[in-house]
Amino acid sequence: MMRLECGVWLAATCRGRALSREWAKPGIHFSESNRLVRRFRQRFLAIEKLFVFDISCRRTDAPALGTIENSRVVWTRWSELAELVEARTSELAALGVRTGDRVAQCGPNSRAWIVNDLALAALGAVHVPLHAANTAALNAKLIDHADVRLVIGGDGRPLPDSLRETTIESPAHLASLIYTSGTTGEPLGVMLSRENLVANAEAVSGVAGGDGNETRLAILPFSHAYARTCDLNVWLLRGSRMVLSRGREHLLKDLQIARPTAIVGVPYLFEKLAGGASGDALRALLGGAIRRCYSGGAPLSARVVEQFEAAGVPLADGYGLTEAAPVVSMSSPADREAGTVGRPLPNVEVNIGSDGELLVRAPSVMLGYWRNDAASAEALADGWLHTGDLAELTPTGHVRIVGRRKELIALSTGKKVAPATIEAIIAASPLVEQVCVCGDGLSHLVALVVPNPTRIRDEISRRRLWVWSKRRAVSHPAIRELFRCAIAESVADLPAHERPGDFTILTRGFSIDAGEMTAKLSLCRAVIAKTFAKEIARLTARSHRAGRNVIPAQRL
Hints:
Elements: E1 2-3, E2 9-10, E3 13-14, E4 17-18, E5 22-23, E6 29-30, H1 35-43, E7 63-69, E8 72-77, H2 78-95, E9 102-106, H3 111-123, E10 126-130, H4 136-146, E11 150-152, E12 174-179, E13 189-193, H5 194-208, E14 215-218, H6 225-238, E15 241-244, H7 251-258, E16 262-265, H8 267-276, H9 280-285, E17 292-295, H10 302-310, E18 315-320, E19 327-330, E20 343-344, E21 349-352, E22 357-361, E23 368-369, H11 373-379, E24 385-393, E25 399-404, E26 409-410, E27 416-417, H12 419-427, E28 432-438, E29 446-451, H13 453-463, H14 470-475, H15 477-490, E30 502-505, H16 525-531, H17 533-545
Protein backbone atom coordinates (compact mmCIF):
# COMPACT_ATOMS: atom_id res chain seq x y z
CA MET A 1 0.00 0.00 0.00
CA MET A 2 1.07 3.57 -0.68
CA ARG A 3 0.34 6.36 1.76
CA LEU A 4 0.05 9.89 0.39
CA GLU A 5 0.55 12.06 3.45
CA CYS A 6 -0.24 15.56 2.34
CA GLY A 7 -1.47 15.52 -1.23
CA VAL A 8 -4.27 17.73 -2.38
CA TRP A 9 -5.72 15.78 -5.26
CA LEU A 10 -4.95 13.33 -7.99
CA ALA A 11 -6.21 14.31 -11.39
CA ALA A 12 -5.07 13.50 -14.86
CA THR A 13 -6.04 13.47 -18.48
CA CYS A 14 -4.45 10.62 -20.41
CA ARG A 15 -4.61 10.36 -24.20
CA GLY A 16 -7.70 12.57 -24.16
CA ARG A 17 -9.57 10.21 -21.79
CA ALA A 18 -10.50 11.62 -18.39
CA LEU A 19 -9.39 9.36 -15.52
CA SER A 20 -11.12 9.14 -12.18
CA ARG A 21 -10.10 11.61 -9.51
CA GLU A 22 -9.53 10.37 -5.99
CA TRP A 23 -9.24 12.19 -2.71
CA ALA A 24 -5.73 12.28 -1.33
CA LYS A 25 -6.34 13.28 2.25
CA PRO A 26 -4.06 12.15 5.08
CA GLY A 27 -4.73 8.59 6.11
CA ILE A 28 -6.37 7.49 2.86
CA HIS A 29 -4.65 4.55 1.17
CA PHE A 30 -4.62 3.65 -2.49
CA SER A 31 -4.09 0.16 -3.86
CA GLU A 32 -0.83 -0.52 -5.70
CA SER A 33 -2.95 -2.18 -8.34
CA ASN A 34 -4.26 1.21 -9.36
CA ARG A 35 -2.23 1.93 -12.51
CA LEU A 36 -2.51 5.71 -12.11
CA VAL A 37 -1.10 5.67 -8.59
CA ARG A 38 1.60 3.14 -9.48
CA ARG A 39 2.83 5.34 -12.34
CA PHE A 40 2.64 8.37 -10.09
CA ARG A 41 4.78 6.65 -7.43
CA GLN A 42 7.39 5.62 -9.99
CA ARG A 43 7.86 9.23 -11.02
CA PHE A 44 7.72 10.83 -7.57
CA LEU A 45 9.24 8.15 -5.36
CA ALA A 46 11.80 10.73 -4.21
CA ILE A 47 8.95 12.99 -3.08
CA GLU A 48 6.49 10.82 -1.21
CA LYS A 49 4.59 13.93 -0.22
CA LEU A 50 2.98 14.74 -3.53
CA PHE A 51 2.35 18.22 -4.84
CA VAL A 52 -1.16 18.65 -6.12
CA PHE A 53 -1.29 17.03 -9.54
CA ASP A 54 -0.18 13.91 -11.43
CA ILE A 55 1.73 14.72 -14.58
CA SER A 56 3.07 11.19 -14.97
CA CYS A 57 0.04 10.37 -17.11
CA ARG A 58 0.34 13.44 -19.33
CA ARG A 59 2.61 14.05 -22.28
CA THR A 60 5.67 15.45 -20.56
CA ASP A 61 6.39 17.70 -23.53
CA ALA A 62 2.93 19.29 -23.41
CA PRO A 63 2.89 23.05 -22.72
CA ALA A 64 1.66 23.90 -19.25
CA LEU A 65 2.48 27.43 -18.09
CA GLY A 66 3.07 30.40 -20.35
CA THR A 67 4.76 33.73 -19.69
CA ILE A 68 4.78 36.61 -22.16
CA GLU A 69 8.23 37.74 -23.26
CA ASN A 70 9.11 39.88 -26.27
CA SER A 71 5.52 39.79 -27.56
CA ARG A 72 5.25 36.00 -27.58
CA VAL A 73 4.29 33.22 -25.19
CA VAL A 74 7.18 31.23 -23.74
CA TRP A 75 5.97 27.86 -22.45
CA THR A 76 7.12 25.84 -19.46
CA ARG A 77 6.25 22.20 -20.08
CA TRP A 78 4.77 19.88 -17.48
CA SER A 79 8.02 17.93 -17.12
CA GLU A 80 9.98 21.15 -16.61
CA LEU A 81 7.46 22.35 -14.04
CA ALA A 82 7.83 19.07 -12.15
CA GLU A 83 11.60 19.47 -12.04
CA LEU A 84 11.29 23.06 -10.81
CA VAL A 85 8.93 22.01 -8.03
CA GLU A 86 11.15 19.11 -6.98
CA ALA A 87 14.15 21.42 -6.77
CA ARG A 88 12.29 24.11 -4.82
CA THR A 89 10.87 21.50 -2.45
CA SER A 90 14.41 20.34 -1.65
CA GLU A 91 15.59 23.95 -1.16
CA LEU A 92 12.78 24.78 1.26
CA ALA A 93 13.29 21.54 3.16
CA ALA A 94 16.98 22.32 3.48
CA LEU A 95 16.06 25.69 5.00
CA GLY A 96 14.09 23.84 7.66
CA VAL A 97 10.51 24.19 6.35
CA ARG A 98 8.44 21.28 7.65
CA THR A 99 4.86 20.05 7.66
CA GLY A 100 2.60 22.60 9.33
CA ASP A 101 5.07 25.49 9.05
CA ARG A 102 3.52 28.71 7.77
CA VAL A 103 5.38 30.35 4.91
CA ALA A 104 4.41 33.80 3.61
CA GLN A 105 4.84 34.76 -0.04
CA CYS A 106 4.44 38.29 -1.35
CA GLY A 107 4.47 39.27 -4.99
CA PRO A 108 2.53 39.29 -8.25
CA ASN A 109 1.60 36.21 -10.28
CA SER A 110 4.69 34.50 -11.66
CA ARG A 111 6.06 31.08 -12.45
CA ALA A 112 8.08 31.25 -9.22
CA TRP A 113 4.88 31.99 -7.24
CA ILE A 114 3.30 28.80 -8.60
CA VAL A 115 6.42 26.71 -8.05
CA ASN A 116 6.58 27.86 -4.43
CA ASP A 117 2.89 27.12 -3.93
CA LEU A 118 3.30 23.55 -5.19
CA ALA A 119 6.53 22.99 -3.28
CA LEU A 120 4.89 24.09 -0.03
CA ALA A 121 2.03 21.68 -0.72
CA ALA A 122 4.58 18.91 -1.29
CA LEU A 123 6.09 19.62 2.11
CA GLY A 124 2.72 19.86 3.83
CA ALA A 125 3.53 23.45 4.79
CA VAL A 126 0.94 26.21 5.03
CA HIS A 127 1.02 28.84 2.28
CA VAL A 128 0.26 32.38 3.48
CA PRO A 129 -0.08 34.48 0.30
CA LEU A 130 0.17 38.23 0.75
CA HIS A 131 -1.38 40.56 -1.82
CA ALA A 132 1.12 42.44 -3.97
CA ALA A 133 -0.90 45.63 -3.43
CA ASN A 134 -0.43 45.48 0.35
CA THR A 135 1.67 48.14 2.02
CA ALA A 136 4.89 47.08 3.71
CA ALA A 137 3.35 47.98 7.08
CA LEU A 138 0.32 45.76 6.49
CA ASN A 139 2.48 42.85 5.33
CA ALA A 140 4.62 43.16 8.45
CA LYS A 141 1.48 43.08 10.58
CA LEU A 142 0.09 39.99 8.81
CA ILE A 143 3.43 38.17 8.90
CA ASP A 144 3.57 38.73 12.65
CA HIS A 145 -0.05 37.67 13.14
CA ALA A 146 0.44 34.49 11.10
CA ASP A 147 3.63 33.68 13.05
CA VAL A 148 5.33 32.55 9.84
CA ARG A 149 8.44 30.40 9.65
CA LEU A 150 9.77 31.95 6.43
CA VAL A 151 9.02 34.85 4.05
CA ILE A 152 9.38 34.55 0.27
CA GLY A 153 9.82 37.84 -1.59
CA GLY A 154 8.49 39.18 -4.86
CA ASP A 155 11.30 37.50 -6.83
CA GLY A 156 10.13 34.10 -5.62
CA ARG A 157 13.16 33.55 -3.36
CA PRO A 158 13.27 33.41 0.45
CA LEU A 159 14.16 36.77 1.99
CA PRO A 160 17.54 36.79 3.74
CA ASP A 161 17.33 36.39 7.51
CA SER A 162 13.54 35.85 7.41
CA LEU A 163 13.71 32.29 8.81
CA ARG A 164 12.54 32.23 12.41
CA GLU A 165 11.20 29.95 15.09
CA THR A 166 7.44 29.81 15.49
CA THR A 167 5.44 29.31 18.65
CA ILE A 168 1.98 28.35 17.34
CA GLU A 169 1.08 25.00 15.80
CA SER A 170 -1.09 24.84 12.69
CA PRO A 171 -4.36 22.88 12.79
CA ALA A 172 -4.20 19.47 11.12
CA HIS A 173 -4.64 19.48 7.33
CA LEU A 174 -4.30 23.28 7.07
CA ALA A 175 -3.13 24.10 3.54
CA SER A 176 -3.41 27.88 3.26
CA LEU A 177 -4.02 30.92 5.39
CA ILE A 178 -5.59 33.68 3.29
CA TYR A 179 -6.25 37.08 4.78
CA THR A 180 -9.49 38.70 3.70
CA SER A 181 -9.40 42.17 2.22
CA GLY A 182 -10.91 43.84 5.24
CA THR A 183 -13.73 45.92 3.69
CA THR A 184 -15.63 46.01 6.98
CA GLY A 185 -12.80 45.87 9.51
CA GLU A 186 -9.45 44.30 10.32
CA PRO A 187 -8.28 41.53 7.94
CA LEU A 188 -9.13 38.01 9.10
CA GLY A 189 -6.96 34.97 8.38
CA VAL A 190 -9.16 32.37 6.69
CA MET A 191 -7.92 28.81 7.32
CA LEU A 192 -8.47 26.56 4.30
CA SER A 193 -7.70 22.86 4.41
CA ARG A 194 -6.61 20.59 1.60
CA GLU A 195 -10.11 19.14 1.48
CA ASN A 196 -11.56 22.67 1.16
CA LEU A 197 -9.38 23.40 -1.87
CA VAL A 198 -10.02 20.05 -3.51
CA ALA A 199 -13.77 20.12 -3.05
CA ASN A 200 -14.13 23.57 -4.55
CA ALA A 201 -11.81 23.07 -7.51
CA GLU A 202 -13.49 19.76 -8.42
CA ALA A 203 -16.97 21.27 -8.29
CA VAL A 204 -16.03 24.43 -10.21
CA SER A 205 -14.32 22.43 -12.94
CA GLY A 206 -17.36 20.18 -13.29
CA VAL A 207 -19.84 23.04 -13.64
CA ALA A 208 -17.59 25.04 -15.97
CA GLY A 209 -17.71 22.21 -18.50
CA GLY A 210 -15.48 21.76 -21.49
CA ASP A 211 -12.98 19.01 -22.22
CA GLY A 212 -9.97 20.64 -20.60
CA ASN A 213 -8.40 21.54 -23.94
CA GLU A 214 -8.22 25.23 -23.19
CA THR A 215 -5.89 28.17 -22.80
CA ARG A 216 -6.71 30.50 -19.94
CA LEU A 217 -5.21 33.93 -19.36
CA ALA A 218 -4.63 34.45 -15.64
CA ILE A 219 -5.44 38.09 -14.91
CA LEU A 220 -6.40 38.14 -11.24
CA PRO A 221 -3.86 37.67 -8.42
CA PHE A 222 -3.40 34.13 -7.08
CA SER A 223 -3.10 35.60 -3.60
CA HIS A 224 -6.90 35.83 -3.64
CA ALA A 225 -8.97 32.68 -3.26
CA TYR A 226 -10.96 33.47 -6.43
CA ALA A 227 -8.03 33.22 -8.83
CA ARG A 228 -6.32 30.59 -6.68
CA THR A 229 -9.22 28.19 -7.24
CA CYS A 230 -10.78 29.23 -10.54
CA ASP A 231 -7.54 29.78 -12.44
CA LEU A 232 -4.63 28.06 -10.71
CA ASN A 233 -6.23 25.00 -9.15
CA VAL A 234 -8.67 24.33 -11.99
CA TRP A 235 -5.76 24.57 -14.44
CA LEU A 236 -3.80 22.04 -12.40
CA LEU A 237 -6.80 19.78 -12.11
CA ARG A 238 -7.50 19.82 -15.84
CA GLY A 239 -3.91 19.74 -17.02
CA SER A 240 -4.64 22.47 -19.55
CA ARG A 241 -2.63 25.57 -20.53
CA MET A 242 -2.41 28.83 -18.60
CA VAL A 243 -0.70 32.08 -19.59
CA LEU A 244 0.17 34.70 -16.97
CA SER A 245 -0.91 38.24 -17.82
CA ARG A 246 1.72 40.91 -17.25
CA GLY A 247 -0.74 43.23 -15.50
CA ARG A 248 -3.61 45.59 -16.15
CA GLU A 249 -1.58 48.03 -18.22
CA HIS A 250 -0.61 45.24 -20.66
CA LEU A 251 -3.93 43.40 -20.71
CA LEU A 252 -5.15 44.33 -24.18
CA LYS A 253 -1.82 43.31 -25.71
CA ASP A 254 -1.71 40.14 -23.62
CA LEU A 255 -5.13 39.12 -24.94
CA GLN A 256 -3.85 39.38 -28.51
CA ILE A 257 -0.65 37.46 -27.76
CA ALA A 258 -2.12 34.67 -25.61
CA ARG A 259 -5.41 34.28 -27.57
CA PRO A 260 -7.15 32.67 -24.57
CA THR A 261 -10.21 30.45 -24.83
CA ALA A 262 -11.25 31.11 -21.20
CA ILE A 263 -10.99 34.16 -18.95
CA VAL A 264 -11.82 34.52 -15.25
CA GLY A 265 -12.33 38.13 -14.19
CA VAL A 266 -14.29 40.67 -12.17
CA PRO A 267 -17.18 42.84 -13.40
CA TYR A 268 -14.93 45.90 -13.66
CA LEU A 269 -12.83 44.12 -16.28
CA PHE A 270 -15.76 42.98 -18.38
CA GLU A 271 -17.48 46.37 -18.13
CA LYS A 272 -14.40 48.10 -19.51
CA LEU A 273 -13.96 45.54 -22.30
CA ALA A 274 -17.62 45.86 -23.26
CA GLY A 275 -17.27 49.64 -23.22
CA GLY A 276 -14.45 49.47 -25.73
CA ALA A 277 -16.05 47.27 -28.39
CA SER A 278 -19.09 45.18 -29.33
CA GLY A 279 -19.97 42.28 -31.61
CA ASP A 280 -17.10 40.86 -33.66
CA ALA A 281 -14.90 43.71 -32.46
CA LEU A 282 -15.36 42.55 -28.86
CA ARG A 283 -14.36 39.00 -29.81
CA ALA A 284 -11.29 40.39 -31.56
CA LEU A 285 -10.47 42.50 -28.50
CA LEU A 286 -10.51 39.30 -26.42
CA GLY A 287 -7.97 37.68 -28.73
CA GLY A 288 -10.27 36.05 -31.27
CA ALA A 289 -10.31 32.52 -29.79
CA ILE A 290 -12.44 33.12 -26.67
CA ARG A 291 -15.09 30.51 -25.83
CA ARG A 292 -16.10 31.28 -22.23
CA CYS A 293 -15.76 34.05 -19.65
CA TYR A 294 -16.49 33.84 -15.94
CA SER A 295 -17.19 36.76 -13.61
CA GLY A 296 -17.25 37.01 -9.83
CA GLY A 297 -16.32 39.25 -6.92
CA ALA A 298 -19.10 41.84 -7.38
CA PRO A 299 -22.49 42.25 -9.09
CA LEU A 300 -22.40 41.98 -12.88
CA SER A 301 -24.58 44.26 -14.98
CA ALA A 302 -27.16 42.57 -17.23
CA ARG A 303 -26.23 45.04 -19.96
CA VAL A 304 -22.64 43.74 -20.01
CA VAL A 305 -23.83 40.14 -20.15
CA GLU A 306 -26.04 41.02 -23.11
CA GLN A 307 -23.14 42.65 -24.95
CA PHE A 308 -20.98 39.56 -24.53
CA GLU A 309 -23.87 37.32 -25.59
CA ALA A 310 -24.37 39.42 -28.72
CA ALA A 311 -20.69 38.85 -29.52
CA GLY A 312 -21.16 35.09 -29.16
CA VAL A 313 -19.18 34.94 -25.90
CA PRO A 314 -20.98 33.33 -22.92
CA LEU A 315 -20.32 35.35 -19.76
CA ALA A 316 -21.27 33.33 -16.70
CA ASP A 317 -21.69 34.97 -13.31
CA GLY A 318 -20.85 33.42 -9.96
CA TYR A 319 -20.72 34.12 -6.25
CA GLY A 320 -18.38 33.19 -3.46
CA LEU A 321 -16.30 34.29 -0.52
CA THR A 322 -12.88 33.35 0.77
CA GLU A 323 -14.43 31.44 3.67
CA ALA A 324 -15.95 28.96 1.17
CA ALA A 325 -12.69 28.46 -0.79
CA PRO A 326 -14.35 30.51 -2.45
CA VAL A 327 -17.09 29.55 -4.96
CA VAL A 328 -20.60 28.90 -3.64
CA SER A 329 -22.65 29.17 -6.83
CA MET A 330 -22.00 29.73 -10.50
CA SER A 331 -23.72 29.82 -13.84
CA SER A 332 -22.64 27.68 -16.75
CA PRO A 333 -23.05 28.16 -20.49
CA ALA A 334 -25.92 25.65 -20.38
CA ASP A 335 -27.62 26.89 -17.21
CA ARG A 336 -28.03 30.62 -16.71
CA GLU A 337 -30.81 32.77 -15.34
CA ALA A 338 -30.70 36.54 -15.72
CA GLY A 339 -30.11 38.50 -12.52
CA THR A 340 -28.73 35.53 -10.60
CA VAL A 341 -25.29 34.12 -9.76
CA GLY A 342 -26.22 30.60 -10.79
CA ARG A 343 -27.11 27.49 -8.85
CA PRO A 344 -25.19 26.30 -5.79
CA LEU A 345 -22.34 23.96 -6.72
CA PRO A 346 -23.30 20.26 -6.59
CA ASN A 347 -21.51 19.77 -3.25
CA VAL A 348 -22.85 23.00 -1.70
CA GLU A 349 -26.01 23.34 0.38
CA VAL A 350 -27.54 26.79 0.89
CA ASN A 351 -30.28 28.18 3.09
CA ILE A 352 -31.81 31.61 3.68
CA GLY A 353 -31.83 32.78 7.29
CA SER A 354 -34.75 34.51 8.95
CA ASP A 355 -33.12 37.88 8.26
CA GLY A 356 -32.45 37.05 4.60
CA GLU A 357 -28.80 36.12 5.10
CA LEU A 358 -27.35 33.45 2.82
CA LEU A 359 -26.12 30.42 4.79
CA VAL A 360 -23.75 27.84 3.32
CA ARG A 361 -22.79 24.30 4.23
CA ALA A 362 -20.18 22.45 2.13
CA PRO A 363 -16.89 20.53 2.27
CA SER A 364 -15.23 23.71 1.03
CA VAL A 365 -16.21 25.78 4.09
CA MET A 366 -13.18 27.00 6.05
CA LEU A 367 -11.81 25.54 9.27
CA GLY A 368 -12.22 28.94 10.92
CA TYR A 369 -10.32 32.20 11.38
CA TRP A 370 -6.69 32.08 12.48
CA ARG A 371 -6.27 33.03 16.14
CA ASN A 372 -9.81 34.41 16.38
CA ASP A 373 -12.15 31.95 18.10
CA ALA A 374 -14.90 34.53 18.62
CA ALA A 375 -15.11 35.46 14.94
CA SER A 376 -14.96 31.77 13.98
CA ALA A 377 -17.83 30.89 16.29
CA GLU A 378 -19.95 33.72 14.91
CA ALA A 379 -19.25 32.89 11.26
CA LEU A 380 -19.82 29.14 11.69
CA ALA A 381 -22.75 29.24 14.13
CA ASP A 382 -25.21 26.32 14.06
CA GLY A 383 -23.16 24.38 11.53
CA TRP A 384 -23.60 26.94 8.74
CA LEU A 385 -21.26 29.52 7.25
CA HIS A 386 -22.92 32.90 7.75
CA THR A 387 -21.89 34.78 4.63
CA GLY A 388 -23.06 38.27 5.61
CA ASP A 389 -24.75 38.54 2.21
CA LEU A 390 -28.48 38.95 1.71
CA ALA A 391 -29.91 36.62 -0.92
CA GLU A 392 -33.00 35.04 -2.44
CA LEU A 393 -33.56 31.69 -4.10
CA THR A 394 -35.54 31.76 -7.34
CA PRO A 395 -38.18 29.08 -8.09
CA THR A 396 -35.60 27.35 -10.30
CA GLY A 397 -33.05 27.13 -7.47
CA HIS A 398 -30.75 29.92 -8.65
CA VAL A 399 -29.22 32.33 -6.16
CA ARG A 400 -29.91 36.05 -6.39
CA ILE A 401 -27.66 38.27 -4.23
CA VAL A 402 -29.52 41.26 -2.81
CA GLY A 403 -26.63 42.97 -1.01
CA ARG A 404 -24.33 42.92 1.99
CA ARG A 405 -26.07 42.80 5.35
CA LYS A 406 -23.49 45.21 6.85
CA GLU A 407 -23.51 47.47 3.79
CA LEU A 408 -27.23 48.14 3.68
CA ILE A 409 -27.89 51.87 3.50
CA ALA A 410 -30.60 52.95 5.93
CA LEU A 411 -32.43 55.97 4.55
CA SER A 412 -34.18 58.40 6.89
CA THR A 413 -37.45 57.33 5.26
CA GLY A 414 -37.05 53.84 6.75
CA LYS A 415 -36.16 52.25 3.42
CA LYS A 416 -33.07 50.03 3.23
CA VAL A 417 -30.98 49.89 0.08
CA ALA A 418 -28.23 47.51 -1.11
CA PRO A 419 -25.78 49.84 -2.91
CA ALA A 420 -23.69 47.27 -4.82
CA THR A 421 -26.46 46.38 -7.26
CA ILE A 422 -27.15 50.05 -8.04
CA GLU A 423 -23.45 50.71 -8.52
CA ALA A 424 -23.14 47.82 -10.96
CA ILE A 425 -25.99 49.22 -13.04
CA ILE A 426 -24.51 52.72 -13.17
CA ALA A 427 -20.95 51.46 -13.79
CA ALA A 428 -22.15 49.58 -16.88
CA SER A 429 -22.19 52.93 -18.70
CA PRO A 430 -19.09 53.44 -20.87
CA LEU A 431 -18.84 56.93 -19.36
CA VAL A 432 -18.34 55.60 -15.83
CA GLU A 433 -15.11 54.17 -14.46
CA GLN A 434 -16.17 53.79 -10.80
CA VAL A 435 -19.13 54.73 -8.63
CA CYS A 436 -20.00 54.72 -4.94
CA VAL A 437 -23.59 55.19 -3.76
CA CYS A 438 -24.07 56.81 -0.33
CA GLY A 439 -27.06 57.82 1.75
CA ASP A 440 -26.99 56.60 5.37
CA GLY A 441 -29.34 58.81 7.38
CA LEU A 442 -30.36 60.82 4.30
CA SER A 443 -33.77 60.92 2.68
CA HIS A 444 -32.35 59.75 -0.66
CA LEU A 445 -29.25 58.32 -2.26
CA VAL A 446 -26.40 60.29 -3.79
CA ALA A 447 -23.68 59.00 -6.12
CA LEU A 448 -19.95 59.73 -6.31
CA VAL A 449 -18.97 59.06 -9.92
CA VAL A 450 -15.48 58.59 -11.35
CA PRO A 451 -15.51 59.25 -15.11
CA ASN A 452 -13.84 57.17 -17.78
CA PRO A 453 -10.95 59.53 -18.65
CA THR A 454 -10.78 58.48 -22.29
CA ARG A 455 -14.50 59.01 -22.85
CA ILE A 456 -14.56 62.37 -21.13
CA ARG A 457 -11.57 63.60 -23.15
CA ASP A 458 -13.25 62.44 -26.37
CA GLU A 459 -16.47 64.29 -25.46
CA ILE A 460 -14.61 67.50 -24.65
CA SER A 461 -12.77 67.29 -27.96
CA ARG A 462 -15.86 66.37 -29.98
CA ARG A 463 -17.94 69.18 -28.48
CA ARG A 464 -15.03 71.65 -28.59
CA LEU A 465 -15.60 72.63 -24.98
CA TRP A 466 -13.50 75.32 -23.33
CA VAL A 467 -11.85 73.33 -20.53
CA TRP A 468 -8.63 74.33 -18.77
CA SER A 469 -8.45 71.90 -15.82
CA LYS A 470 -9.71 68.58 -14.47
CA ARG A 471 -12.08 70.39 -12.15
CA ARG A 472 -13.57 72.37 -15.01
CA ALA A 473 -13.84 69.22 -17.13
CA VAL A 474 -16.03 67.40 -14.59
CA SER A 475 -18.08 70.49 -13.70
CA HIS A 476 -18.73 71.77 -17.23
CA PRO A 477 -22.53 71.96 -17.75
CA ALA A 478 -22.37 69.95 -20.99
CA ILE A 479 -20.39 67.13 -19.36
CA ARG A 480 -22.60 67.14 -16.29
CA GLU A 481 -25.72 66.93 -18.47
CA LEU A 482 -24.20 64.03 -20.39
CA PHE A 483 -23.65 62.09 -17.16
CA ARG A 484 -27.06 63.05 -15.76
CA CYS A 485 -28.77 61.55 -18.79
CA ALA A 486 -26.63 58.42 -18.70
CA ILE A 487 -27.31 57.81 -15.01
CA ALA A 488 -31.02 58.56 -15.36
CA GLU A 489 -31.34 56.03 -18.16
CA SER A 490 -29.38 53.40 -16.21
CA VAL A 491 -31.54 53.57 -13.09
CA ALA A 492 -34.90 54.27 -14.75
CA ASP A 493 -36.26 50.80 -13.97
CA LEU A 494 -35.30 50.86 -10.29
CA PRO A 495 -37.74 51.73 -7.49
CA ALA A 496 -37.79 55.43 -6.63
CA HIS A 497 -35.87 55.01 -3.36
CA GLU A 498 -33.04 53.17 -5.20
CA ARG A 499 -32.47 56.00 -7.71
CA PRO A 500 -29.80 58.53 -6.65
CA GLY A 501 -31.24 62.00 -6.12
CA ASP A 502 -28.02 63.68 -7.22
CA PHE A 503 -24.44 62.93 -8.21
CA THR A 504 -21.04 64.54 -8.47
CA ILE A 505 -18.23 63.73 -10.89
CA LEU A 506 -14.92 63.33 -9.07
CA THR A 507 -11.55 64.49 -10.35
CA ARG A 508 -9.81 61.29 -9.24
CA GLY A 509 -10.64 57.62 -8.81
CA PHE A 510 -10.91 55.57 -5.64
CA SER A 511 -7.55 54.01 -4.85
CA ILE A 512 -5.98 51.21 -2.85
CA ASP A 513 -3.22 53.51 -1.59
CA ALA A 514 -5.77 55.89 -0.06
CA GLY A 515 -7.53 52.97 1.66
CA GLU A 516 -10.67 53.51 -0.43
CA MET A 517 -10.44 50.10 -2.13
CA THR A 518 -9.20 46.68 -1.13
CA ALA A 519 -6.63 44.68 -3.08
CA LYS A 520 -9.44 42.97 -4.97
CA LEU A 521 -11.00 46.36 -5.85
CA SER A 522 -13.91 46.23 -3.40
CA LEU A 523 -15.05 49.62 -2.09
CA CYS A 524 -14.21 50.57 1.51
CA ARG A 525 -17.36 52.62 2.00
CA ALA A 526 -16.60 54.10 5.41
CA VAL A 527 -13.28 55.50 4.15
CA ILE A 528 -14.89 56.89 0.99
CA ALA A 529 -17.70 58.51 2.96
CA LYS A 530 -15.18 60.18 5.27
CA THR A 531 -12.83 61.29 2.47
CA PHE A 532 -15.63 62.80 0.37
CA ALA A 533 -17.80 64.04 3.24
CA LYS A 534 -17.88 67.61 1.86
CA GLU A 535 -19.00 66.44 -1.58
CA ILE A 536 -21.75 64.30 -0.04
CA ALA A 537 -22.96 67.22 2.10
CA ARG A 538 -23.12 69.50 -0.96
CA LEU A 539 -25.07 66.87 -2.92
CA THR A 540 -27.55 66.42 -0.11
CA ALA A 541 -28.18 70.18 0.21
CA ARG A 542 -28.47 70.68 -3.54
CA SER A 543 -30.92 67.85 -4.14
CA HIS A 544 -33.05 69.02 -1.22
CA ARG A 545 -33.26 72.49 -2.76
CA ALA A 546 -34.17 70.93 -6.12
CA GLY A 547 -36.89 68.82 -4.58
CA ARG A 548 -34.86 65.64 -5.14
CA ASN A 549 -35.33 65.80 -8.89
CA VAL A 550 -31.77 66.50 -10.01
CA ILE A 551 -31.76 63.07 -11.69
CA PRO A 552 -35.24 62.61 -13.18
CA ALA A 553 -37.15 59.37 -12.70
CA GLN A 554 -38.26 58.89 -16.30
CA ARG A 555 -36.24 57.05 -18.93
CA LEU A 556 -34.57 59.51 -21.26
